[in-house]
Amino acid sequence: MSESGFGDFEFERKFYVRELPSVAALDPRPVLIVQAYLFAADGYAVRVRLQGPAPAELGARPAELVHALGADAIGTMTAKGPAAGGTRYEAERDLDPMVAGQIVARADHVVVKVRYSAWLGEDGWVIDRFLGGNSPLLLAEVERNGPVVDLVIPPFCVTEVSEDDRFRNEHLAHQPFGDWADHYRDELDRLGPRFVGTLGRNQF
After folding, report:
1. What pLDDT is attached to residue 129?
2. What is the pTM of this model?
3. Mean pLDDT of 57-75
4. Half-sphere exposure in the Cβ direction for 88 (13 Å, CA)
5. Is residue 70 part of a domain?
6. Residue 176: which domain range?
7. Would the pLDDT of 186 be above 90?
8. Which of 8, 31, 142, 152 has the fewest CB atoms within 10 Å, i.e. is most exposed?
9. Is residue 137 one of the residues assigned to a domain?
10. pLDDT at residue 5 is higher than 60
């Protein structure tokens, strides 16, 4: 349960990034995340995640990545509800890392990413570099204990995708970004960047 009193809810905003920002290189301990989606429909999802310090060499298959994470891995299982206005129900519970690893290694719909963390102004940000079928996708996220309003958006954020279901991990697990990356880039060039305007005043 969050310290804000909102219980099992997360408050985040998400942005598409074209190139890995230099601030990512300052993170001394990036994290490898391998997560499987056991169920995903109509905005609801059940996820099993294994994460730990990113190894120098990354294998191509989930089973190899699970093995590479080793004894320092952390396992979780999460139930998610539909998102609205930067808010989403998310109940996360610890899971034995060995059990989590065995589930992820056997799952059909898996997302793999390396996560970099950075503190920018008053907010903590993460930049996710997706691997496998979702390469070369880069997404930046900011999360707070309450609604993410009056946000200072760093220059590496090209456009906001907080309300674009295509960029939810459960969608990426079934429809990898690599399959529709060119279509999305053409769409972005045609329509231009967009940012949510209902969460206070955006600052750039």
Report:
1. 97
2. 0.91
3. 81
4. 21
5. yes
6. 9-191
7. yes
8. 152
9. yes
10. no
Selected catalytic residue, list 16, 37, 116, 184: 37
Q: What is the mean pLDDT of residues 34-50?
A: 95
On whether the CB atoms of residues 130 and 113 are closer than 8 A, the answer is yes
Q: What is the CATH number of the domain that holds 135?
A: 2.40.320.10
Residue 99 to residue 93: CA distance in whole angstroms: 13
Residue 28 counted as domain residue = yes
Active site residue 44: no
The model's pLDDT over 88-118, given as tens digits with 9 standing for 90+, comes to: 999 999 999 999 999 999 999 999 999 999 9
Q: Is residue 2 included in any domain, yes or no?
A: no
Number of domains in the chain: 1
